[in-house]
Amino acid sequence: MIALKDYEEQKKQGLDPVFNSKKLGIKNAEYWEEEYSFNHEKDKDKVS
User: Fold this and answer.
1) What are the domain boundaries of the chain?
2) Is residue 22 within 8 Å of 6, Cβ to Cβ?
């Protein structure tokens, strides 16, 4: 439920929702931590 609430809050803010397991306090989610880090770095490259 915490992930759904975070998703809805991001949508309400007009954002393109991103799942961040660390922000939500979800442990043992190595795949998602790596995926978030990869996509976050990729997005920063677009801005530069």
Assistant:
1) 2-47
2) no
